[in-house]
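Comment thread on ticket #2218

A.B. wrote:
> Attaching the input chain for the structure job we discussed in standup.
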Amino acid sequence: MGLTYWWMLFGMALVTYIPRMIPLTILDGKELPPIISGVLSNIPYAVLGALIFPAVLFVQEGNILFGIIGAATAFLIAFLGGTLMPVVLGTIGVLAIYSLFM
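C.D. wrote:
> Ran it. Output below, let me know if you need it in another format.
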């Protein structure tokens, strides 16, 4: 491992640490406005949706309907109040049945 490797590792550590350190030092003990808190609390859901949605379209090569049925089933079960396990198991069950008739 050359010196370039260590400088690259140090640089990656630094650019990862700085965005985490700045809010902790600047905002230490301060209350954020409610609108900013609301936006920040929804970021994980938005990122999760952005990561999952493209995979829904390509879950089974050549059959986009498979992903759409799975996503619709998961949304419906979650909308009806299902927690994580009923959503996952219900979606697997519906797609297993769909696979039998495909």
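A.B. wrote:
> Thanks. Noting for the ticket: Residues 3-26 form the longest helix (24 residues).
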